Structure prediction request, 443 residues.
Amino acid sequence: MQKKVGKYIESKQLLMPGDTVIVGISGGADSVALLHILKALGYKCIAAHCNFHLRGRESDRDETFVRQLTTELEIPGHYINFDTKKYAANNKLSIEMAARDLRYEWFEQLLVEHNAQAIAVAHHRDDSVETMLMNLVRGTGLKGLTGIPYRNEHVVRPLLCVSREEIMAYLMQYDLSCVEDSTNASTEFTRNKFRHEVLPLLETINPSVRETLYQNIERFEQLEGFYMYNINQLKEKITTQENNVFKINKKELLEQPYFQTFLFEMLYPYGFNASMVSNITDSLEKNPGLIFKSNDYQLLSDRDYLIITPINAAEDAVYEITEGLTAITEPLNIKISVFPVSSSFIVSKEKFRVHLDASKLKFPLTLRHWRQGDSFIPFGMQNKKKLSDFFIDEKISRFNKDECWLLLSGNEIVWVIGYRTDNRYRVSRETTKIVEFELKKHI
Prediction:
């Protein structure tokens, strides 16, 4: 088995001989086998164990076991304790996701500290088969059928070429002990349902189903490479990306055969699932202006484009501008100048550089996004206008409207940034001092 794993590492170019490897070890059978094999193959290993304190004494038992094992194998070990439940609550994550984030963030720190080449984790062939089935049931593109990747940036998985059965046989061959996580037997977790119920049921139909599915994964990997090459060729043709804004040309999209498949592949990385993509597809030839949201992104079905942008987590945030500042960089890059009126002064007519009467401004000023019910007196007018009506009159898209920032003095809008100032704050004959605001990075 050492030769098999060594050949796999070489064929996938996962590790280079002589360089340090951070090895994640829980104390379970898979990670014990991984650590032992990598040491036997001559790699310089550093063991890394996380105590998530989720299983009481059992978690402490695992740490004690790993400490003894690394001592016996003469491998340096690093250990860390996490308050996983607190982290999950503070960051609104599931326990599983919280533990994953904590684990890999620490692994990355160790990688840098020890100038290591990679982080090796112990996922094996059966894990990959389970992942493929889970993705298939949830709904996935072709990528989801390729199971667990053998490399993900710094993380490598040298055991994907071997099964759980082979791992257990290896432990017996070398008389290696391990610890068992009691939660592995619980079918409350989705993966365990597939491991203990779905796959055994499939084995009654095909006793070699695990091997068959893994062979399919290998075929899907090759097919996915060819498939994504063609997807990327089409992506370059009909999409554009500038900063955090990704656009898909609707007309050119609809001209493509199987455009629904292409659209799914474009949107899936942004968190849009198959059902959501189906709804977006149905909206393509309907009235523009519909917005769809995943957890982290929003998609606007505009007249000519599908526009994907990150959801602004700080959209309700309010920023202060205190008197005397000459510039701000958050949330916008604005230069601020104060100067007296001179005979040569000309009021700016630019949308991104405005002049206001300093005597009418009450500091601190504030910056925030627009809200329903906001109103102001547009420059050149005498009566208040709802900001929502102003956006309609100016033909401002729903996307640009949602991204719009306001500069306020007290509760009054001074400047709809990038569009119009408020008439009450204009420079007049009575003005003696001027404040200039210049948006350096246009919205």
Summary: The first helix runs from residue 2 to 12. The longest strand covers residues 44-51. The radius of gyration is 29 Å. The chain has a mean pLDDT of 90.
